Amino acid sequence: MSKILNDLVNLWVPRRCFGCNAHLYRGERYLCAFCRHEMPLTEYNFGKENDIDRKLYGRCRFEKAVSLLYFERTGLAQTLIHALKYRRIEPIGKFLGTWMGASLVQDPELPKIDWVIPVPLHPVKQRKRGYNQCALFGKTLAGILQANWGENYLLRKGTGRSQTKENRGLRARNAQAAFQGENLDQLGNKSVLLVDDVITTGATLEACCLALSETSGKPPRIYIATMAAVL
């Protein structure tokens, strides 16, 4: 019955591909099969060094980092993530989390993850948007990896203004003061997957890793997964 109702809804309000605007058929979500095949996958894994690792080396304590997609200006990844962030299409987070989770569970180099923790939004920005764009992505990964979901270990301070037009040095200084950890002793010696939407300069993830490592006991082992990366 649900499939029949879904087909009737698509007949009157047809779903369209974010990439080419083609009609989406049963089983397709947000992207048609052709556009999904054209998405710029990084194919990074937790076994081999990649450009994100090199971007963060020497800046913070972390084990390994991966991204699902390359973020290209005016590209398909940008279209999809901008729809998630600015058009309030929150389920795209689950779509990308399911996609990435399917590869992570097959990665023999990724250890058992105890906690999945999102990069937090500033409360003002989250109230305005209505949700953290990383949340559903991270919750989906937590479910697939059979890990705990922890959104209360990192807090965001500061003004909450966008840093997309600021240079790397200014981003880094702002980010250092923007995050603080809470109840970090509960994460001691645990494996943590820190998730974010897009890594650009790495300043935000650097600051989050530093905040998560400020514990009186043994710090968590931090792994990083993002939807996309600007390289």
TrEMBL record:
Q: Show the SUPFAM superfamilies listed in the entry.
A: PRTase-like
Q: Domain of life of the organism in this record?
A: Bacteria
Family affiliation? Belongs to the ComF/GntX family.
- Protein name, entry field: ComF family protein
| Species whose genome carries this gene | Robiginitalea myxolifaciens
